[in-house]
Amino acid sequence: MGKKLLRALLVFCLAAVATEPALATTPIAVGPQQRVAPSQSELAEPESLWSQEVSFQPARSEVHGADVVDSGRAYDEERGFGWQLADGRRRQCGDRNSELVAIDTFCHASTRYVRTNGAWVAVTSPGSWRFDAEPGVYEVTVTVGESIYHSSRIRHSVQVEGTIAVDRVQTTANEPVVSATVTVEVTDGAVSLDFEGGSRTKIVRVRIERVGGLAQQNPTETTPTTDAANAAQGDASSEPSLTVPVRDQPLIIFEPTAPSSPTLTVPGRPSVVPSAPEQSDVIATYGFDERYGAFASDVAPGTSPHDLFLGYYGPVFEWVDGGVTLSRGAAFATPGPASRAIDAVDDAGEVSIDLWVDVGAPSASEAVIAGLAATGLSYHVVLVRDGSNIELRASSGSITLRAPLSGGALQHVAASVGPSGSKLWIDGKLVAAATGTSVSGPDESRIVVGAYPDSSGSWSGQIDHFEIRASQLTTATVQTLAESNRDVICVAPTAVERGPRSDDLGRSYVGVFQSESDLTESLADAVVSRPDAVRDVLRHANAMLCQQPSSVTANGGGSAWLTDSPYSSDGIFELSADRHDYRLGERLSRGLPALGIAYRITGDEAYAEQALQLLDAWALDPQSRLAPELSPNRRDIEIYITQTGVLYGADLIWDYTGWTPDQRTALIDWASDLGDAVRTTSTSNNTDSWRLLLLATAGRMGARPDHVEAAVVRFTQRLDAQIGPDGTMLRETHRTRSLFYAVFGVAAMVQLAEVSAMSGFDIYALTGDDGQAIKTAIDHLAPFLAQDDPTDGWPDTEIGPLYAGDLLVGVFAIIQRRFPSTDYGPVVARWGSPMFARVGAGHVSVTHGGPNS
Q1: What is the mean pLDDT of the chain?
Q2: Domain 516-847, what architecture?
Q3: 40-228: what CATH class?
Q4: For a disulfide at 349, which of 47, 182, 393, 438, Cβ 3.0-4.6 Å?
Q5: Could you say which DSSP state residue 794 is in?
């Protein structure tokens, strides 16, 4: 039976806004309340139809039009309804005491508020709600929200019998509650409500109506028809497909100029998805394909990905073809408990891990390869290197399996724990087994790679394609996994023609960093002369096909850029800091240009479509986009160093016919407005150079030449204060990482010069009072960067570490192209090719490369 949708629109003028939370401050003892429902004999008859309206409210609040009141108490068999929470505690319920009595009360469905240092703090509190009901077909209407308090951090989600009713919906003062109806079959004696995927869900009412006996087919899903929900779900007509057309006439057709010229078969996007086991139980998947970021992206289907971040950001890891090699001291972990994974494993009572791993040399002490763990004594499941063995450990040590495993090559390892048995496989062969038992673990578990969250158990080795499932693997499935291609292959979106190849200004290519003719020439030369660089950018683009559209609103923080400082007050890297906006912006700033370059190299419009979908969620859709303004908590530098790459990526696909005219107009307006915001402030040191780079880039994409001119004027005014007569970056000398930030600042200036040149300004030619220029600073740095130890002879403090992926030496590919008469080859040779500028220009060996890149 299909589902019907009921939308309750309530529009009110609210005179005052209350603050969170509204709680019943004194527990009240009341007797069990009997629900008013038909007798069991009546329910046994399919034609016995009935309905019940449940109001969620404090026990003393006045009841308005409800049959049953739920005041947050635990499920009671005699009462026949209530909450099922792991801690057995009572749900907190509130009453706003406003005139809107029908929606004035609610219970917190997924959150508990605790008082800490005099303030109320929201703590996630998973649980479900149950209403006893005989088998049959039911229409269930849920209402979420409340009368007064609304926030971008509150996203309501409800599932009824596993069917989505409300999915991460944000209520507002104009739409304070949202209702949705689903039709479900009940076979287990109760209507159950879950609240997964949202944040701080508040439930107001539930109406349960028995409409018949068991249906003949499974229910289908429905969602509330709010704009926010529609934006989250997307247009069904644009869902991904396995078949991706390739443009008939690629922009660039590569042919070697002579038989003796080296040739390259451009690998492009994988067009076939190999058969694989069912993925519905996959909690998290890591391909380790990014290379250009200090994280591992969770590409498993679903919301709220469990991305992994480095606990140590330094030269103790190395991206390799299809994986990552960790040295002791490096580890990935989720930045906090992996709540979605924990819930799935705890609910299933079973878990499986499979990965490709080179365990390395025998370890002197236990070393953690990967798992779901809180500490070395408290975990759900971990794979551990212990001496010359690999061990599966689960349920905080109550389960242990061991087998010998030598290092030196990647091998497939799988482990499974649950009621059907504990098992360990190596390369598809079962090597250890034990009797079965359910998996359990702490609420603080994180997904980890390379160490426990407290950095103990550090491991050295190589890992690739790591998955966690909330189910048990079979030997047949493991054999399939062991024999399959370990590369992550994602289904690319289907290219769709929605509009013309140019915007209303007649632009099919704007030109952020270089003219279209220069770009075309560079890409053609790269395919012939720098095949490794081309393969590099295509690997990056293929990994970005796995990226789900997301935005700054995904963590409940609204449309503003809100991130915590990455460091605690004592300067230590803080894993628990909320870095969502920056990490996603960072990923898009590098990935969108890679998708755009891949589109122009291969002519495959799937790359452009993927980039457009990512851009739409990030910058265009009013429900999800980043507000084009500065950060309310003064993390403006993160906006400056990420949004240049986002706009550059948009430029590279500007001629794609998948853009609608409205989307192009929205991008132009967004860039223009972002430039307005950036233009209203100023700062010192390298931060202002990055600000000016974004201002000029926004001016190019936003058709605002005044923005570009303002950036050039400001740079001219700051030249003497920034660059000393000998090329010293004056504003960076006092820093503990003075060499790093000197390069960082010069990289911003070089890219600003390139963007400005596209509007006719030559700031390379600008000189200060002592004749210093951008090239003076470049030539001051080059000899140090060409040394094995760049800090040898460096006059200022540099505590390091320095490595190519972080140092932005990639801009020397641009510099060499701009100043061909100066040999910067020793710098390139020292840091290696292909070169990559992680902020801004990206894959410069492909777009700006030459013999020295």
Answers
A1: 81
A2: Alpha/alpha barrel (1.50)
A3: mainly beta
A4: 438
A5: -
Per the structure block, which two tokens stand in for 754?
A: 């390139």
Instruction: Using alpha carbons, select from 373, 370, 376, 372 the residue that is nearest to residue 390.
Output: 370
Name the CATH architecture for the domain at 282-483.
Sandwich (2.60)
Give the model confidence (pLDDT) of 722-760 as tens digits. 999 999 999 999 999 999 999 999 999 999 999 999 999
In sequence order, what are the beta bridge partners of 320?
323
Rounded Cα–Cα distance for residues 688 and 679 (Å): 11
Task: Note the pLDDT tens digit of each residue in 358-383.
Answer: 998 898 889 999 999 999 999 999 99
CB atoms within 10 A of CB 28: 9
Grouping H, G, I as helix, E, B as strand and the rest as coil, residue 692 is helix
| Burial (CB count <10 Å: 0-12, 13-18, 19+), residue 29 | exposed
- Same fold? 40-228, 282-483: yes
Domain ranges of the chain: 40-228, 282-483, 516-847
Q: How far apart are CA 471 and CA 10, in angstroms?
A: 43
Q: Residue 690, Cα to own-chain centre: how many angstroms?
A: 24
Helix (H, G, I), strand (E, B) or coil at 460: coil
369 vs 347: CA distance, rounded Å: 25
pTM: 0.62
- In this structure, what DSSP letter does residue 620 have? I
**Lookup result for tokens 């990559």:** 836
Are residues 298 and 284 in contact, defined by beta-carbon separation less than 8 angstroms?
A: yes
pLDDT digits (tens, 9 = 90+) for 474-515: 999 999 888 876 654 566 788 999 999 999 999 999 999 999
